[in-house]
UniProtKB/TrEMBL annotation:
Pfam families xrefs: LMWPc
Gene3D superfamilies named among the record's database cross-references: 3.40.50.2300
Catalytic residues of the enzyme: C9 (nucleophile), R15, D127 (proton donor)
Stretches assigned to the Phosphotyrosine protein phosphatase I domain: 3-153
Protein name per its UniProtKB record: protein-tyrosine-phosphatase
Reaction(s) catalysed by this chain's protein: O-phospho-L-tyrosyl-[protein] + H2O = L-tyrosyl-[protein] + phosphate
Amino acid sequence: MTYRVCFVCTGNICRSPMAEVVFRARVAEAGLDGPVEVDSAGTGGWHEGDGADPRTVAVLEENGYATGHTARQFQPSWFSRLDLVIALDSGHLGALRRLAPTEEDARKVRLLRSYDPAAGNDLDVPDPYYGGADGFGECLEMVEAASTGLLAAVRADVEGRAA
């Protein structure tokens, strides 16, 4: 049975595609790329059909990640097929929980940085879109740090289903 994770930010061109690429790499390294599917979307459709922001692509490639992405908007109907919806900031968290058709679906929505014990109470991944390249590097650091804990949680869920 496939375990599905979707990362969500605002326009699906900066943070969520970055998280998707990083987490997909972690999943593959862990040998879970068979049972785990990873994708991303935005709360809005402004960039639907566009590729990732060139600064996102650059920071990913500079750090050895494969890229390739087409932006899309998150749809409430997706909740039924997703196991985990990962919001990149508290605004996305609230928007996604409001979109959730059921309480059970709303419980599937979590903040990415909640999986990083070093994050403390600062659980938002800031939007780097209006800033310079440094913001994209900082975003990548936050995504990578949280991916370790997220992978552990997903592995536990996948193994729990198999048991």
